[in-house]
Amino acid sequence: MLDRLHKYAFRLRWLRLPLVYLSVMAIVLAGYVTIFPVNPGESVNDSLFIPALLLFCWSILAFSLINVFQVAPPTVDSKLGFFRRQAAKFRRALRSIIALGFLLLSIALAVVSIKLMTTGLG
b or e along 56-82 (b: 16 or more beta carbons within 10 Å of the residue's beta carbon)? Predict the structure, then answer.
């Protein structure tokens, strides 16, 4: 799993700068909509604020996923000493926990995206 994530992150490393631009544009749009509402009676225009907020969340998630898994920890080699093998196993286990956290965060963000889109646009 870690090697596959490393392969995807390595292929998508060119997307880091566009993702930063997208996240900055999304947060600027959300701030603009919050400060200058379209209708003076409304506090926030949900039809623009919610998509901007979701775009910001997804772009930050993708950016951090690419940065975290761009470098994969080395596989455990049987020729290494005991403590070096244990350290390599610990690093791979820690990265596996981080990968599981990203998976759970992606699922949670997908659920929140669906809820917000149906609430904001419905």
Answer: bbbbbbbbebbebbeebbeeeeeeeee
Model pTM?
Answer: 0.83
So what's the pLDDT on residue 110? 96
User: Which pLDDT value is given to residue 43?
Assistant: 60
Total domains, the chain = 1
Greatest extent of the chain over all pairs of C-alpha atoms, in Å: 71
d(CA 102, CA 15): 18
| Residues comprising the chain, all counted | 122
Reported as a pLDDT band with limits 50, 70 and 90, residue 58 is very high
The parent domain of residue 51 ranges over 2-121
| Plot region of 120 (φ>0 → left; ψ -120 to 50 → alpha; else → beta) | alpha
- Token readout for 101 is 């956290």
| 82 vs 74: CA distance, rounded Å | 15
